Amino acid sequence: MNSSKNILVYGVEPSKILFLNSFFSKNRLPSCNCIDDSMENMIMSDILKDASKNTKCSSSKQSIIIFNNLSQVEMSTAIALIKKVLKPKPIFASITPNSITWTFAQLKEELINEKKFFEGK
Predict the structure, then answer these.
(1) How many CA atoms lie within 13 A of 90 on its CB side?
(2) In whole angstroms, how far apart are CA 71 and each of 3, 20, 29, 62, 96?
(3) Residues 62 and 35: beta-carbon distance below 8 Å
């Protein structure tokens, strides 16, 4: 798995990303890196390798935040900050040994389906 610390964002407005990055910097967290629609068919491990190179973000009704290699404390801090800024609440996920081999499209579909399932309960 990729050992660098990443916070990947999809469907978040650029102005909100700048705001989040300011908070993250003060809390010694990694900056957000964007996932855009052109990356749909990329494998997550490849997205993580090139994460810092993408500065354009896609807009979407459903925002998704994906953490990679953050400690539990770092993730909890990041989630608390994100919840203050992003409405409605985004989907939060963490890269796993399984999901790192998926395309972003596969991961996004899985996350949205899980959200629908849990909202239906």
Answers:
(1) 26
(2) 12, 18, 10, 25, 14
(3) no
Q: Per-residue confidence at 93, pLDDT binned at 50, 70, 90? A: very high
Burial class for 110, CB neighbours closer than 10 Å (0-12, 13-18, 19+) = middle
| Sheet architecture: strand order including 32-34 | 32-34, 6-10, 64-68, 91-94
pTM value surpassing 0.85? yes
Residue 2 pLDDT more than 60?
no
What does DSSP assign to residue 68?
E
Percent residues over pLDDT 90 in the chain? 73
Strands 6-10 and 32-34: parallel
In angstroms, the CA 15 to CA 4 distance is 25
Task: Provide the token pair at 119.
Answer: 């909202």
Structure tokens at 71: 């400690």
Model pLDDT, residue 31: 92
